[in-house]
Amino acid sequence: MEDPSIIRLTFFIGAFLLFAVWEWRKPRKQLTQKKWIRWVNNLGLIFSNSAMIAVVMPILAFQAAQIADARSLGFFNVVDLPFWITVLISVLLLDMAIYIQHLVFHRVPLLWRLHRVHHADQDIDLTTGSRFHPIEIILSVWIKIGVVMLLGAPALAVVIFEVVLNVSAMFNHSNARMPLTLDKYLRKVIVTPDMHRVHHSIVIRETHSNFGFFLSIWDRLFKTYISQPTGGHDGCVIGVPQFREGREQILDKMLTQPFRN
Fold it and tell me: How far apart are CA 108 and CA 6, in angstroms?
């Protein structure tokens, strides 16, 4: 397989437009901040992070999978399994790895300082799904590379996983209203917007719960699942206590948040 950048970009644009229209037509929660200010700054951070990765990263997860395959590195390159089973298991394990990484970034104080930039958004919508500090992005890419090489995950599995992760991050951060019955059944398998909104609550116990990005099974399996926010979704306050001023949604403030109390 050649460079899958065009595949990822196509899914990103398609999903972005889909969820943008959905949350515009049927918003789940009234916004508290000016949307255009948040979007300009969130998207500015997203695009600058993408440019930085292109410049500073020697390889990405896809190239790591190709290197592992060429050099027979990783578990799946020394174990003889049908290709489709290898792809399926690789996607599942990569999703579990993202869950564990997310949990660790909450548990380790230094890493939480980086990750709270994501949580400092005082509203959540599809742009929040990719709002991360540049240092966290770089660390995440290296972690993903390490997991891919350790597993010996096929390049196809990496492409599938990255597309699914990207789309699901926009989906579960979207401010879109979903029928409660549909949410009830969907969240048994995947992370829904209502399920993930609990994770962005200002209530500390709720902030440190619901770490899954795609599959919801990891939160249930590792006992980090909370069904609903304490005050209900309409009363759920989004963000972190340290950064409540509207100015904190501006790009320069987001970049310095890990270094301020």
Answer: 35
pLDDT in tens, the chain (261 residues): 667 888 999 999 999 999 999 999 999 999 999 999 999 999 999 999 999 998 899 899 999 999 999 999 999 999 999 999 999 999 999 999 999 999 999 999 999 999 999 999 999 999 999 999 999 999 999 999 999 999 999 999 999 999 999 999 999 999 999 999 999 999 999 999 999 999 999 999 999 999 999 999 999 999 999 999 998 999 999 999 999 998 999 999 999 999 987
Residue 15 lies in a domain: no
Total number of domains constituting the chain: 1
Enclosing domain of residue 134: 35-259
Per-residue DSSP letters for 10-72? Answer: HHHHHHHHHHHHHHHHSBSS--SS-HHHHHHHHHHHHHHHHHHHHHH-S--HHHHHHHHHHTT
- Report which DSSP code applies to 237: P
Question: Is 89 in contact with 103 (CB distance < 8 Å)?
Answer: no
Alpha-carbon torsion 98, 162, 148, 188, what sign? positive
SS3 109: helix
